[in-house]
Records
---
Amino acid sequence: MDLNTPHDAAPEELTKALVDLLDVEEIDTDLYRGARQPGGVGRVFGGQVIAQALQAAQRSVDEPKVAHSLHAYFMRAGDETLPIVYRVVRDFEGRSFATRRVIAMQRGAPILNLAASFQVPEDGLAHQDAMPDVPPPESLVSDRDLRAASVDEIPEKYRRHMLRARPIEIRPVEQRSWAHPQPGEPRQASWFRLSSQIGGDAAMHRAILAYASDMTLLGTCTLPHGVNWMTSNLQTASLDHAIWFHEDFRVDDWLLYATDSPWAGHARGFNRGSIYARDGTLVASVAQEGLIRLRA
């Protein structure tokens, strides 16, 4: 199943395609292969590389240790026509914590470096920020339906990409025009979930959240400037990405992704994200800096 398909594929098919994409293959000790996206012809989605690299790291760590954070740097654009090879380095193995480094490579060149830390679960002092007061997902319209309603405003070359069926359903809290972006506050929120149910493999749920965390985040720092990725002279790319996993969650239940951007400058924009479960539990935090370069 091609994740880029514009057709109304069944949610179960789309979900299986994403799970298969992120289910890395072990080809030798600490060496893994991540599948290419079927039908892909352009630059690899950053969330895919992060998720596959996290899966490779998770495969090298024994229970009961679980991933609690990752930090990644993008170096080169990935090629969707090729698989990605992931090499894991076991930097530390302690009683409570373990750390792994992962190098993602294509054609012998690194495209991403990722460091991940793992911890044996334990109790401790606890507090969290409150979830923003936003409408529930049932009262909102999916981003795909919003785009379909204004399809005449979308340039022909973008329509297939913007109207394709996707395994992650997103329902934005704020409705914005893709064709005519207007300056606004550097913050936004969206509900998201996997389009159908999957099993209880917590490592896969973390990988899928890592995949989804690269959606809607970078665009936050462009909001005050009235531009988006459809702006002809705007060049965008993720430069780095960090995730902290706080609590257990399921990606096939609704999660709220609240993002803000406190700073942009020097052709870079900084973005933060908080991911909440329906009951208000803060399950993950995200940070990313991205390239937002206006060309002449």
---
Amino acid sequence: MSSAYTSVWSDLAQVEFSQGFLRAGPYRTRYLHAGDGSKPLLLMLHGITGHAEAYVRNLAAHAEHFDVYAIDFIGHGYSTKPEHPLEIPHYIDQIHHVMAALGRPTAHFTGESLGGWVTARFAQLHPEKTERIVLNTMGGTMANPKVMERLRALSTAAAQDPSWNRVKARLEWLMADPSMVTDDLVRTRQAIFQQPDWRMACRMNMALQSLETRRRNMLTDDDLRAIEAESLVIWTTKDPSGPVDEGRRIASLIPRGRLAVIENAGHWPQYEQTETFNRVHLDFLLGRTERSCEVPAP
């Protein structure tokens, strides 16, 4: 346990938020919500085998300016778990239904890992529905067999036996500093992994770790060049999925793209370097910064 113990509840204790479920088309979509409908919609999209709690440390700051929904993707968290392999078009279909259920024709998006992959593809295909986007340690541009196998092995092991140590190991993969994985965060994810349908769900959401499936869903350079939205690519100096140079390459291909590099963070900078992330993120979403930057973290 970290010497500076935190919990999901302590992260949310002073946040005016709600938790619930949307009937979004065929999907029951679980969400954490903060802000109100008078503000622009901001959808926060987590990574593979993740859940809405990836953004508990970001809700309060963003709710001052946005109507914020952090959702559980289908096949994840407590949302509907389809019994078929999940590819990027399936997640995009869910986003369409979520926006329709909320009565919103457009949204800002921030996506981490898988969430960034979905965000980029959505922005490419549906510019009329897309405001500014943030691609946070995004997936979808690389197919590194070692990274894919490590992710599959950790996720599958935790699905087959959601013991404390296996769930903890899966979470530690996300962090530059393993002490950020507190007992409370482990228990939050362990409860999800202990659901009766999780083994099946994990097999379905691991589809993108298959090389053949991944390749037909990947974002090409031309796909990135076709993104019209103002875009911020956030990368970190200790991301386990790929080097900073990949983030720099992605930002250079998107016509209105820019890069921010956050130090001393892994795959979850929004959680691990919250103050820095929130500042950089909001400066971009609110149009307060127009340049690429290297961002030191304490």
---
Amino acid sequence: MINIIDEAKKIQDEIVNWRRNLHQIPEIGLELPRTAAYVAKELDEIGVDYKSNIAGSGILGFIEGVEEGKTILLRADMDALPIEEDTGLPFASTNGNMHACGHDAHTAMLLGATKILNKYKDKIKGNVKILFQPGEEGPGGAKPMIEEGVMDNPKVHAALGLHIGGIFEEVNTGQVGISYGRTMACLDSFNIKIIGHGCHGALPNLGVDPIVISSKVISALQTIVSRELSPTNPAVVTTGILKGGTAYNVIPDFVEIAGTVRAFDQNTREKIASSIESIVEGITKGMHGDYEYDYTFGYPPLVNDDNFTKEFVDTVKKVVNEKDIIELIEPTMGGEDMSYYLQMVPGTFFFLGGLNKEKGMIYPHHNPKFMIDEDVFWKGTALLAQGAIDWLDKQ
């Protein structure tokens, strides 16, 4: 028997060090040269075989157990956000980007699990694929990594991942949030160009005002959720960008609108996409304007497998007290491209509480003051390693 808790606690300081080093070199998108080089260096030291430069800077490690068996995928995202850090931490980033969502911790905790699993690979039945993914914050690294074959040779049969922080307020520091079924929403986006006819602001009758049209469109978009969808079918339509005009006394030729849509099933996504265009077309045509419209179906909803999740709860009980296992009843409208892996194989995406009010770690994800409690890192490592071992043993 392997005492995973003891093994994880032994390398807690090392996990923290990995995280702090990664925190100082945040990179965004699919190309993360410094981050990937750091991860590769640590994998070399651990002694794990891996492939790099997958879908940009993605890395796929491989641990082969002593006995033949199935293959489980452990996944962590590595990318950061284009946010200027304002934490005051001694290891804060100074390059204009920031790990404001905890991906540096995800990477460090997975490195820890990799070290433990590789140390005891002679006791593992089957295989473990270790995936370090770029681009989760955009444009999306999961799909291109899948397209480049990370789920094949050998075929992946299950997947496990985690998110640290405070996505669910009910999951306190060091607690583990578990969700059955639908857990996170899709991550779709839309772009609209309202086309009018520019003129002098004092003579609006000589033009077509796209700003006025846009105000009608934005208000009407809110009726999609409130009047077209069932009240028991949650969805969000949010306008995040509104750009138009160059001078206070000029009616511009066009206005640009962009936003996001969140929902939990494909029919709802398609209905919202169609309704947005119907509203835009009706209002712009009725007010003598025109439009251009583009809708992007992004990350699909993230759905955890009930059976896998139920078995994983038994794993969690080995690592934390049962009172610290929080079953999440309501899903979040946040999106995650871990959903692509979970569309293909059973698995679960769980949540490790990482905010700590007593330590002043109260700021939400994507905030320049976002901080997480490093004392819980060993738990993430233990849960990933124990989760892989337990699932493989049952196959």
---
Amino acid sequence: MAAADSPALVVAGVSARALAESAQQGGWRVIALDLFGDRDTRRASQRWLPIGEPATLAIDPLRLRVALAALDGEPGMTGWVAGGGFEGVPALLDAGGPRLPLCGMDGASVAALRDARRFFATLDRLGLAHPTVAFDAPGDPHGWLAKRAGGCGGWHIREAGDAGPVHPDTYYQRIQPGEPMSALFLADGRRATLIALNRLLVQRQGSHPHVFGGAIGPIADAALQARIAHVLDALVPPFGLRGLASLDFIEARGQPWLLEINPRPSASMVLHPDAWPEGLLRAHVQAMQGRLPAAPAQHRPGVRGSRIVFAPRGCRMDLVLAERLAGSTHCHDLPVGAAHFVRGEPVCSVSAEAADAHAVEQLLARRAARIASELVS
């Protein structure tokens, strides 16, 4: 743990566990704001404050503003870092006070990047491949997805023929066959350093066909790494990308088809804590100040993975199971005690490490299935 007189860093998001652990690794005293307050987050933090209800998977704007205002007057604050959950409400990124600056891209910059018309027009101008997009519903919805530019975690994606609501930021994208992947990178506004390629685990949850369920990496593919490095060199300047971020894409026969950029630390950072000695969040804050690491990212041998365990039905985790799982080295994001879950709600996550991605995926599937089978209806 950091010394009592160390500078403090506030981390916030739907789930702040990865941010809190990386901030602790970087030597900060950590104050975490999220929906879950799980065991790992509290263990890595000096303090935890709730900013929403777990079942909603959405940050409560009022609770966030109140929490940030309360922390603004405290001494020793470096600032605050935003994780996932701000995509649809970028104005909240400007909610910190004068003594609690945002260590990340501001609301206007994120809103511009999440403007689908501008984003895909920029890709076209730069000659970068992406699946076909449209801003009016296709006459024949077969083979198309409806997405929201302000969505996150895949919960906003549905088949175009689904009779769900059409929001002002809805756009349509033709389904591109291939492997869902992401590139975790660090940028300083002018150039980028690729940290790792990761394979994304995507699964159906009810009427949501492409929900983010985890990631596996690093994926070693020199040719694809070179292509993605070229893409990042092209994209960083026009969007002024800074700090940790991730580029989502579909890989098909070596060709990356670009989907979106998440301009903030992503969940895949848990796979790469050894990239630099002081961790990824320390590198993120330094990149926001215009300094990229002098050395390339390092990775220990093998491949790592993380997978979310979703409640298969309305169920609960009793205290006995919670305590037993807490003693496991591969269970994370566990509730602090007995807990109830609605169908599709995240219960916890599991991790695995092996020599190759296939072995990691098999381990993750077995561990997730076992936990799901032990939940009580």
